[in-house]
């Protein structure tokens, strides 16, 4: 890629992708922008970060080939359920984003698109609403090669799950190679969000049980979230938490990228990564915590082993700094 800087690379990539739908262009630019962010934060210059990527020719060819194999024939579908009769929701999708949001009334609604390549099976048994994607062609053909074709190929329409502002039940949302969003709702029980190769955004959420979030090769963002226990795990991408509180455990883990945790609180906090830094602000004073920390090839402002507090803080990384502070 020569000596292109960040802006030149993204501008040229956007120009070369002009034949694709705007939402796919935006997702692609956002995806590579995040990769460049992480690599620059790990010490690369702009030009070094750009040079570490695949060539623009390869990226464009991969996306164009994936798009040519897509079906444009879709059939929109919608289901409506009484929110008081559903005690749990389980969604198992692939290559489509899953969005959890607040409905305008007390009902639960599903919005999705069936295509020649994929259809959805929807059913309710014993109060459990189940949504399952069924593929209409061989898995190897659908997924193609790991990478952009998996990240952006296939069906682009999301499945949208709308629930009452307060839902008395548990929810599991699973997809692959596509992102998950959950916002502006409260659950009395647990919430599980799992994907791969794409990001997860959780905002303005209250969970009466455990919140479990997982991905790989993409970031996780938690913002203004409360739960009994919280676990967020990814790899090769950053893990971010802001104004996040757990009654019990709060665990944030990744690898080869940073952890940023601002204004977090929990009885037990675990922050772990590798080859990058850990930074953040914890509510309260350091004397409230028993602290363990470890890094290599980097500095730390935390004691390596300090007892005395009723709460616990465990911070580990390698080849990176630890800069964790307290509000008091």
Provide the fold topology.
Elements: H1 6-16, H2 22-41, H3 46-51, H4 56-68, E1 74-82, E2 88-92, E3 98-102, E4 107-115, E5 118-125, E6 128-135, H5 139-143, H6 148-152, E7 159-163, E8 166-167, E9 170-174, E10 180-187, E11 191-194, E12 200-214, E13 220-233, E14 239-246, E15 249-253, E16 259-265, E17 268-272, E18 278-282, E19 289-294, E20 305-306, E21 311-316, E22 322-326
Parallel strand pairs: 2-6, 2-9, 3-7, 3-10, 8-10, 9-11, 10-12, 11-12, 12-13, 13-14, 13-15, 14-16, 15-17, 16-18, 17-21, 18-22, 19-21
Antiparallel strand pairs: 1-4, 4-7, 5-6, 19-20
Helix pairs in contact: 1-2
Structural class of the secondary elements? alpha/beta
Number of separate strands: 22
Q: In percent, how much strand structure appears in the residues? A: 35-45%
| Unreliable parts | 138-147, 149-155
Output the radius of gyration. 21 Å
Q: How many domains, as an integer?
A: 3
- Using the alpha-carbon principal axes, give the shape: flat
Helix proportion: 10-25%
Helical element count? 6
Span between termini: 48 Å
Characterize the main sheet.
Answer: 22 strands, mixed
Average pLDDT reading: 87
The H/E string reads HHHHEEEEEEHHEEEEEEEEEEEEEEEE
Q: Can you offer a commentary on this structure?
A:
- This protein has 328 residues and is of the alpha/beta class.
- It contains six helices and 22 strands.
- It has helices spanning 6-16, 22-41, 46-51, 56-68, 139-143, 148-152, and strands at residues 74-82, 88-92, 98-102, 107-115, 118-125, 128-135, 159-163, 166-167, 170-174, 180-187, 191-194, 200-214, 220-233, 239-246, 249-253, 259-265, 268-272, 278-282, 289-294, 305-306, 311-316, 322-326.
- It starts with 5 loop residues before the first helix and ends with a strand.
